[in-house]
Design the sequence.
């Protein structure tokens, strides 16, 4: 617990110690972060303002974009600022807050991806019952349950982190505070804590569930018309791409013993910063409805400004 600590702050070593590379880190991740926030905010505004994007699929996409923006915000600003700072210190409280945020918005994205898979399953495999099953009240309840599940997971992780005593050293070989690098600094045997670590189980179990779900969905498409298969495949492939890109790095980080690998930081960056940046492109470039809604929004905005 905190009162057992002699460490009041940590030093994040970041991605590199080289001054020139630090400047490159600043430029690259500043562009990534601005692009992430702008892209996901565009999707959020488009879905909220468009009457044609009122289906459950876009309702869940709204919350996926929100989770993406928040997950990136929980790590990217600190990485950007630290890349130009001489002292890359983070207080104990700030560190614990970052652990909470990462393990809240990360699982939130996991749960939303599961809800999107359920939505596609019902739409494709049970089309006649889709309006009844996926009505607005049900979707709202599912999202609330996703928020509650993410909050419970985050509380469990932060409780483990708060129980860790730190008596030095305080150097975190990472660009952010996460439970895995903190375990290496704890002045105690963390074996039992490792057994209680649930992130890896959630990542692995969710990934298996999603892959089985999309396998069933793709198999059921054989009974659809050519046009129906084309449209369903376009949507499902986008979802599958996001699932694979998000879960493979997540499983690599959390579903293995807490031993350090040289690529840990880059893999972590990929799913906390890279995936939130890519998701808007994946969902808009392959989705005609979203692109049309964005064009209408742009037309309305430019028309109102010209007046």
Sequence:
């Amino acid at each position: 617990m905190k009162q057992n600590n002699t460490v009041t702050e940590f030093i994040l070593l970041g991605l590199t110690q080289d001054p020139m590379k630090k400047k490159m880190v600043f430029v690259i991740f500043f562009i990534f972060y601005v692009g992430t926030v702008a892209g996901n905010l565009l999707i959020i505004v488009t879905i909220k303002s468009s009457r044609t994007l009122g289906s459950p699929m876009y309702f869940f996409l709204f919350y996926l974009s929100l989770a993406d923006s928040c997950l990136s915000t929980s790590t990217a600003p600190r990485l950007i600022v630290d890349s130009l700072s001489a002292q890359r210190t983070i207080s104990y409280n700030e560190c614990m807050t970052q652990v909470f945020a990462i393990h809240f918005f990360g699982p939130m994205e996991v749960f939303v991806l599961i809800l999107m898979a359920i939505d596609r399953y019902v739409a494709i495999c049970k089309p006649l019952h889709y309006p009844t099953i996926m009505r607005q009240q049900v979707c709202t309840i599912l999202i609330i349950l996703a928020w509650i599940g993410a909050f419970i997971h985050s509380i469990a992780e932060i409780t483990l982190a708060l129980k860790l005593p730190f008596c030095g050293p305080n150097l975190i070989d990472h660009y952010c505070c996460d439970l895995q690098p903190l375990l290496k600094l704890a002045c105690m045997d963390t074996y039992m804590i490792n057994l209680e670590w649930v992130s890896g189980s959630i990542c692995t179990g969710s990934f298996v569930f999603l892959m089985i779900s999309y396998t069933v969905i793709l198999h059921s498409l054989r009974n659809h018309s050519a046009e129906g298969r084309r449209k369903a495949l376009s949507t499902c492939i986008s979802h599958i791409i996001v699932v694979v890109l998000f879960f493979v790095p997540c499983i690599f980080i959390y579903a293995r013993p807490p031993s350090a690998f040289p690529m840990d930081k880059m893999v972590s960056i990929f799913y906390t910063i890279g995936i939130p940046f890519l998701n808007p492109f994946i969902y808009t470039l392959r989705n005609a409805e979203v692109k049309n809604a964005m064009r209408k929004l742009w037309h309305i905005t430019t028309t109102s400004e010209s007046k």
Observations:
- The chain has a mean pLDDT of 86.
- Residues 2-306 form a domain with the Rhopdopsin 7-helix transmembrane proteins fold (CATH 1.20.1070.10).
